[in-house]
Structures are given as C-alpha cells and as structure tokens.
Amino acid sequence: MYDAVQVFAKALHEVDLAENVKVPSLSCDSEEPWDYGPTIIDYMKQLEFPGMTGMVRFDEEGRRTDFTLDVVEVYRDGVTKTAIWDSINGLSLIRSYNDTLAEVQRNVQDKIFIVASIIGEPYLTYTKPLGQYTGNDRFEGYSKDLIEAIAENLKFKDYQLILARDGKNGGIDEKTKKWNGLIREVLEMKADLAICDLTITYDRRNAVDFTMPFMNLGISILFSQLPKEPPNVFSFLKPFSFDVWLFMATAYLGVSIILFILCRLTPYEWDNPHPCDPDPEELENSFNMLNCLWFSIGSLMAAGCDILPKMSPFEWKTTQPNKGQPQVLENNQTFHNCVWHNMGSLMQQGSDIAPQAVSTRMLAGMWWFFVLILNASYTANLAAFLTTGRIEETIKSVQDLADQTKVKYGVMVGGSTAGFFSKSDNPLYQRMWVQMAQSKPSVFVKSNDEGVARVRKEKGRFAYLMESSSIGYQMHKYCDLIQVGMELDSKSYGIALPLSESRSRLYYTQPHDVVVIEPGYEPKNPGIETRLVPWLFSPKGNYPNDSPYRTLINKAILDLQESGNLSKIKTKWWEKAGGNCFK
C-alpha cells in the first residue's frame, strides 16, 4: 500500500510541474473521467524507484515487473512462511518437507475429523439393537474399524462419522453434471475424509485426493449356484447317457441271440437227457434263449457263469466216464447256460467252466473285452457322479455371459463398475454395456444389496457384476452364491480427501500487500492475477495440491498392513457374515 501511494504521488507531482494541475469539485455520482487521469497513468508507467517492496517498475501495459511474493500457510498456531516466488526464478520452497509434515502431525492431534461414509455391509451398518446407541457407536463395520485404527495410529483428537446425504459412493449426476455421494461431501468440505468401498478411478482422482489402497480387488461375476439334483431310485443310470444304455442293451441281446443260433445249428451242443439210454428218442440243448441271455448278462455284470459254450467236438463230454467208447456224449452249453456265462463275465465273477473250442473262445473273448471297457467306463463315471454330481455350469466366464441371452446381467447404476463398462475400449465389454442398457426390464440396480438379492431370487437367470471383495463377503454370507470366472480388471479402494485440505486459506504477501486465495477461488481479472502467480491457477503448477494428510494416513495404512491388523479387520467382518459356507 505504501509503494502504491508513492507511485501515485510521484506521478501526480510530475504532472503538476508540467501542467499546473487544477482539481475541480468532484462528485461521486459523476461518470465523467478526470482530464488528467490518462496523463497520470502514463507517468506512473515510466516511474522506477526503490520502494519498501523492492524495485518498483512497470511494463508498457502498466503491470509491475521484477517483484517477489512470500507464500505462507495458515495453521492453528499462526502463519508460517513456506516459499518465495519471483518472476525470474519461480517458486522456491524455504521450508523442508519434514518440517511441513511435523506441522501437519501436530494439527492432526488437535483436529476432530469429519468422516463420511454410506451404509452397506460389511463396510458400515447400524449397530443393533437400533436406537440404543449414539455418536459413532451407532455404527459398526469394516470402515469404522479401519478409521478407528488409523485414528489411534495417528493420535487423532477425535473423529465423527456422518452419512452421505444421498447414500451414494460418488459419481457425476447426468442431469446436474455435478458430483454426488461421498465425493460431493468431500468437495463441499462437509467431510475431511470419505471411507467405504470407494474405488479409486481417474475421474474421482481428478476431483479429490486419495490415500494409498487399503484393499485390492477386481470386477467379477456373482452368480447363483445351481441346486444339486436330489438322488433318486434311478441315479445308477446317470453315469451313462440314454444312447449308451441303448447300445449296450442291443449288444447284449445280439450276443445272446448269436449264441442261441450257433448252439442250435451245431450238433455238438445237443445232450442226451437220459445217459443210461444209448439211443434216446430226443436230445436236449442247454443253450436255450434264456440261458444265452443269462450268459451275456453274466459278462456285463462281471459275475461269471458256471456254463461256457461248447460248439465244437472239444466241448462234448462223455456221460459215462467209466466207458472208453461211450455211445452218447453230452454238451452243457444250453442257451440258458450261455446267458449265465455272459452274466458271469459282466459281473467279473468268473466261471467253473472255460471255453475249449477255438470258435467259442473267440466269441467269448470279444464279448469279455467289450465288457471290460464298458465296466471301466461305468465305474469311472459313477465315481465322478457320486462325488461332484453331474450339474453343468451354464456360465463359466465373462465370454460365456456375453455370448448368451438366457441369463441377464447388470451393475449398480453410477458405480465404478458401470463406469468400467461404459468407458471400456474392449469390444466385448462395449457389447455387454449396450446389452445392459437395452435390457427390459432394467438390469441396473441402486445398491449392491439389491443386486445380490436379485441374483438369489432369480436363481440362474440373473448375474451381477461387482467387486471381488464384496463377492467374497456375500459368498461367506450366502452359501448358494458363487464367483464365476476370473477378475476382469484390477482396482483398489482408497480413502478420499479434499485437495489442499489444510490450505483452507493461502496468503501470497509482500511486506504490505496481501493476496488471499480461498478454496474454489476464480480470479476476477485473469490477465493480471494469473500473471502475478501463474503457478497458482495452472493445473500443472509447481505447488502441490494433494491433501497434506495423505502422507500421514498412508503411513498409518502401511503400519496396519505390515503388522497384520489390516488383514485381521477384514477377516473379522468377512467371517462375521454368519454363513458356514467355508467351514
């Protein structure tokens, strides 16, 4: 102010010496300029003298050049000079980083932090029974335990939990084009911190500051586990398809019929029903149709048989072992016995009679090899069926989800997952976003709880895309839910803070001149003010705009992580979900 008066006084004196200035009566209501005004301004531009603020000189446009500004920050115990700025060297910090951090630490211990959050399991819920608690005790959950651990680590004076007015995480409203939810609370300085399942995104990071991640995750698919089919009387048929059973029955009947026909055609399969009569009127054949079927089923069941085919002379036995040359021979390979032989093969029980002729051995051997493969396949499929069941998962990956139309899928409106799909350059994710936007009825939900409830209600007809950490919690809580496929991306949860939160008021001073910059300040005269402090209004300025509390909170999160307390807090609330799904 002193130098400004000196400039005007010197210019007025020079003009008076040259033109003998006469001052008429002035009126505040008059709009006519003073006749000597332009002349005085021209003289002021030409002045150059050492003043209290340094050398005073102006350029052709009347702007002061070659001057210095002191940058100070306001703390609870007063104003502290932190840097010097001049038009030649720019900004020069004169306070060390450690000094600044120590000052912030002292402020933290004297500050009551306002912490914003939203209701949502397991991060924050109301303490039950409702209405019996006040203050921070009204809430419980992962977010509360985390901020409490940070407050204890940094020795906060205290903190106060509040809820976002609209109950949203934070996104740009399509109608107002302004931030809502927790981001709005931080931007409007209603809260010093915002903590919940708040994903760090590019847009959010441009609006507010974030700490280092306290939880890493990715987008995945929450789906309802298809119910297992209850066992029934015919469960033993399920290891094979209907076609396999049909082919096996056809082979069984075919082998039995062939045995029956061969035994009828050859005379060696006929027996004397009366061994004492050397010339009987009738002969009998043991391989009737029933015995052939019994032989085949015996092989299938791996039970063996006491009868084997005898279609050649080697299969015939004497009915009178004491006679050297008997008149009559007998053959036990009736059709009934053939069936019994095959049944013994299936059941793997063996037989007390083995084939002796080449032809019968070839037929029996081919049947036994077929039965061997069939029994091995049945045993393997039956074991798999009894242990894991035969339920086929309809959706195994995000590609499967996108390639079908039977199962609908959705996201939470305004959330980071919705932003991931709407802004993705991946053709698959773009196609999925278009499908979600065009679905009728709408597949967008207002909260994660609503999405989980819809997945459980529509069982196999709706899938919900959400963060893997939340999916893990829901799987602990509800045993009928599963996570399908791999994570689609990699993201993190962080604590949101206002940009330059401790510099609620910045002073850019000369010994007698002060420029006060408030949060959200826009220069009224950009041509002059941005020239005086161009780094102040530039997005890429030299002076950092990150929250001064970020470094301290980052250190606290690291301490909790290295000590294992961060993991303990998560385990506590994830296992507290109440389910026995992982026990």
From TrEMBL:
Ionotropic glutamate receptor C-terminal domain residues: 112-576
Indicate yes or no for the key word Iron-sulfur: no
The principal location of this protein is membrane
- An annotated GO cellular component: postsynaptic membrane
GO MF terms, alphabetically ordered: ligand-gated monoatomic ion channel activity
User: Where, by residue number, does the polypeptide cross the bilayer?
Assistant: 244-267, 366-386
Please report the record's description of how this protein sits within the membrane. Answer: Multi-pass membrane protein
Q: Which keywords does this Swiss-Prot/TrEMBL entry list?
A: Cell membrane, Glycoprotein, Ion channel, Ion transport, Ligand-gated ion channel, Membrane, Postsynaptic cell membrane, Receptor, Signal, Synapse, Transmembrane, Transmembrane helix, Transport
Please name the InterPro entries in this protein's record.
ANF_lig-bd_rcpt, Glu/Gly-bd, Ionotropic_Glu_rcpt, Iontro_rcpt_C, Peripla_BP_I
Lineage, top-rank taxon, reads Eukaryota
Enumerate the spans annotated as Ionotropic glutamate receptor L-glutamate and glycine-binding domain.
122-188
- UniProt-annotated location(s): Postsynaptic cell membrane
Question: Is Nucleotidyltransferase among the key words of this record?
Answer: no
User: Which family, according to the similarity comment?
Assistant: Belongs to the glutamate-gated ion channel (TC 1.A.10.1) family.
Q: What is this protein called?
A: Uncharacterized protein
Native organism: Timema cristinae (Walking stick)
